[in-house]
Design goal:
Elements: E1 2-5, H1 11-18, E2 23-26, H2 28-33, H3 39-49, E3 54-58, E4 64-68, E5 71-75, H4 91-104
Parallel strand pairs: 1-2, 2-3
Antiparallel strand pairs: 3-4, 4-5
């Protein structure tokens, strides 16, 4: 099972949900709601709650970080000039959909 949360205010049920999934995909906003101010801090916070299984943290302009079966890494993003950005609505949903599709097809982050 995969859980993806991009909405804040989920702290109350986060620990319970994390214990039930194989993958967690957590946004920058949710990470900050959990008290994590950096991508690395979010990974450090979430990994033990998942039993050091699999977690992805999206961090906007910094890309995403992951821990997959104990292997830690980052997925940088290409810098796009602000003048070329029309709208970023749906970017997180698109990332999540592609990520789940690729994991389902047997791809790994590591």
């Amino acid at each position: 099972a995969v859980v993806s949360t991009q909405s804040t205010g989920v702290r109350e049920h986060m620990d319970e949900a994390l214990g039930l999934v194989n993958w967690a995909i957590v946004s920058k906003e949710v990470s900050r709601d959990l008290g994590c101010e950096t991508l690395d801090a979010a990974l450090d916070y979430l990994a033990p709650k998942l039993g050091y299984r699999n977690v992805v943290v999206t961090w906007g302009e910094q890309g995403a970080g992951f821990i997959e079966r104990g292997i830690r890494g980052k997925c940088p993003v290409e810098k796009i000039p602000e003048a070329e950005i029309v709208d970023s609505i749906g970017a997180g949903d698109t990332f999540t959909a592609v990520f789940i599709s690729m994991i389902s097809d047997g791809f790994t982050c590591a």
